[in-house]
Amino acid sequence: QVQVVESGGGLVQAGGSLRLSCAASGRTVSIYKMGWFRQAPGKEREFVARIRWSDGNTLYAEFVKGRFTISRDNAKNTVYLQMNSLKPEDTAVYYCAASLVRASGYEYWGQGTQATVSS
User: Fold this and answer.
1) Helix (H), strand (E) at residue 4
2) Distances (CA, A) of 15 to 11, 25, 76
């Protein structure tokens, strides 16, 4: 079992920045990848970014390329999502997820943290 807890959400003006953190605990030695997803009001949850635990390989959704950066600190079992040049349409609940397997999908999810971007 792996537990993940997000933090760092808040309210920011358009053009501003936020950094989200996701702390993992439990069987962290078995983590294969961790990712960030988001869900805006009235919309389905969507993929934002993911990082492979072993080598730091990253993957991003097109709509965040060049603005968001996912990174990890293996010693702290923590993943970060640095969000720059934020837009009102980035407003959403951001979820962290962890997976122990290479296959698509994630087994462990956090409760989410709200990020609100005002215009």
Assistant:
1) strand 2-7
2) 12, 33, 29
pLDDT tens digit string along 37-80? 999 999 999 999 999 999 999 999 999 989 999 999 999 999 99
Place of tokens 């990253």: 58
CB 88 within 8 A of CB 15: no
pLDDT in tens, 8-31: 999 999 999 999 999 999 999 999
In order, the DSSP letters of 62-108 are GGGTTTEEEEEEGGGTEEEEEE-S--GGG-EEEEEEEESSSSSS-SE
